[in-house]
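Suppose a colleague, Dr. K., hands you the sequence of a protein chain of 71 amino acids and asks what its three-dimensional shape might be. Before reaching for any lab equipment, you can write down a predicted structure in token form. Begin with the sequence itself:
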Amino acid sequence: MQDLVPIEIFLSRHEAEVVRGFLLDRGVESVISIDDVGGQLPGLNTLSGGIRLLVRRGDLKRAKEILENLD
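The predicted structure, expressed as tokens, is then:
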């Protein structure tokens, strides 16, 4: 995937995975970007700015609509 932009930032990988699943179920691919040294330092993600959920720039509007309707 190229031309990726962040759509949401999470403190929990589990939460990011759940939202990623919602997007995928609705046809929007996404990628989780996390700096936790391969899972060795899970708390590091808080210091590095959180866990970022990224989507293609062209899918950003659709992904935002999906997330707004999750509530």
